[in-house]
Amino acid sequence: MLRFLTAGESHGRALVVIVEGLPAGLEVTVEQIGDELARRRLGYGRGPRQRFEVDELTLIGGVRHGRTLGSPLAIEIANSEWKRSDKWHAEMSPEPGHTESPLTAPRPGHADLAGMQKYGFSDARDVLERASARETAARVAAGAVAKLLLGHLGVEILSHVVRLGAAAVTPDGARPMPDQIERVDESPVRCFDSSAEAAMLAEVKAAAADGDSLGGIVEVLAYGLPVGLGSHVHWDRKLDGLLAQAVMSIQAVKGVEIGSALDVAGRRGSDAHDPIRWDEGANRYRRTSDLAGGTEGGISTGELLVVRAAMKPLATLNRPTLETVDTVTKESTVSFKERTDVTAVPAMGVVAETMVALVLAREAQRKFGGDTVNEFVANAAAFAATLPDPATAPSS
């Protein structure tokens, strides 16, 4: 089954990701992965790094003549900032040495101090380089491949920003469809609602003027998901739990919601669940609402999957004001400044798509199996044929 591992630091030579478990015969190109990485660099309020970061991709192994081989896929994402100058060559060198400028004023809300204490570091850079959201570029590369695999099942995943600071779309606002992803990406804040977009832009401008940062909420939508991913039988195989853990692992994400969970928590049971009907024309069962967000009992229902991720304001401010303590002198001070964004919520949406895609691809492989893409698709089709009458499905 699909799994991935990333390596590399924010200002190091490169990021690397290895994706294991891909079936043979999946068409993969540098351009396809690069398109997803370019989407990650979008968003009003991003810092200056996005103006020159190129994400130079190299497929190291696992692909021959544009198709996966069934062996691990290795991707390198070169750090163009490393190549542009030698500023980071000494600071991030893997060779024995030491830094001339240790960072000793940890940022509240960042991994700095907890990481320094856990690993016995005296320099916060030993923590922040890996804790940086730059690592998500490697995740997006892996997720781009997962999306390609899911595409063979007719699954399409996209995201849009539903809150940025105090500005938010209305609860009954329209959701983008798969063929409207370009319209979302054309929005400076990746918001599908034009009126909310204007309010979000104003929020970013105001925070930028104050040297402050903004958090927000993105909604990830997975269309065309098959029934039966995940399981009710073990706590660690429930699809909603797997999605929550994966999305929560994104840097600065502090909350995950499946469907309308927070709203439903305040309702009575008679008004909190999705009615089930038989759709004669489609020859399938349908839910007439999406309060559950496409999962029931830890299993996908075949309806629209809805996952929301809440991102806190970034801990690095352009005008540092957060109180902290110098770990050497123990005197009060303000946290140090690294290059930062006013907000990364629009980009986080692309990363959240990635994590959702990786979970869904892994669970689809667990359900359908197959050493090749053709076998994987055929197995999924055979299962789908049993759904109108579950009693006809094989019991073994």
Description:
The structure is a single chain. By secondary structure, the protein is an alpha+beta fold. It has one domain: Chorismate synthase, AroC fold (4-Layer Sandwich), CATH 3.60.150. 31% of the residues lie in helices and 20% in strands. It is built from twelve helices and 17 strands. It has helices at residues 30-40, 80-84, 87-91, 112-119, 125-131, 136-151, 181-186, 194-209, 239-248, 261-264, 345-368, 373-384, and strands at 3-7, 14-20, 56-61, 63-64, 67-68, 73-78, 156-164, 167-168, 216-223, 253-258, 276-279, 284-287, 295-296, 299-300, 305-311, 323-325, 332-334. Strands 8-7-9-15-10 form a five-stranded antiparallel beta sheet. A four-stranded antiparallel beta sheet has the order 1-2-6-3.
